[in-house]
């Protein structure tokens, strides 16, 4: 773990390249958010294809782990991989979660409605959704009164508070309405982490492992 909180763009890119050139390391993660004044493409591409285990390069060898976690929930736990009758809503379209989830659903042939800060009929869109995937990271983004009974909620977004980590919705608020939901937090996160480590293991195949 290398803390570059006060580094400029050049220092960040140089540090990443130095680590990337060391064959003892097989995966590199650049923790988001990247400062808005940095060149995102330059920073992302400073990690080589073989070590981009977050899957953020456009030409990455790997899929974004958080999308793999959501996909697993959809296909295995919620059994909707074979259904084309459900309506999907994704809240948020950020780089780390919403964007990859929207792209991943598209690859599955699903066309979710996307809610962002400019969506005017937000409540109406939510009430019509069969599956809501919230990727924002703010308190009470989804409330029970906004969703129809029996809907499925997948909470990806998290945020920190004095009392600990919280999700995009309150479990006690939605548990009587939702047909199924991931606990906020503790639902998607552990699956996401398992896919991240699975990807790291795959990355070890690309370069020979050297002992220190």
Summed up, what is this model?
The chain is an alpha/beta fold and 212 residues long.
Count of alpha and pi helical runs: 7
* Poorly predicted parts: 208-212
Query: What would you call the structural class?
Result: alpha/beta
> How many extended strands?
7
Please tell me about this protein's structure.
The protein has helices at 9-20, 40-45, 65-77, 98-107, 122-127, 171-174, 188-203; strands at 88-91, 113-115, 131-134, 152-155, 158-161, 164-167, 180-181. The chain is built from seven helices and seven strands. It has a five-stranded parallel beta sheet. The protein has 212 residues and is an alpha/beta fold. Residues 208-212 have low confidence and may be disordered.
Write the layout of secondary structure elements.
Elements: H1 9-20, H2 40-45, H3 65-77, E1 88-91, H4 98-107, E2 113-115, H5 122-127, E3 131-134, E4 152-155, E5 158-161, E6 164-167, H6 171-174, E7 180-181, H7 188-203
Parallel strand pairs: 1-2, 1-3, 3-4, 4-7
Antiparallel strand pairs: 5-6
Brief descriptors of the model:
212 residues; alpha/beta; five-stranded parallel sheet; two-stranded antiparallel sheet; globular
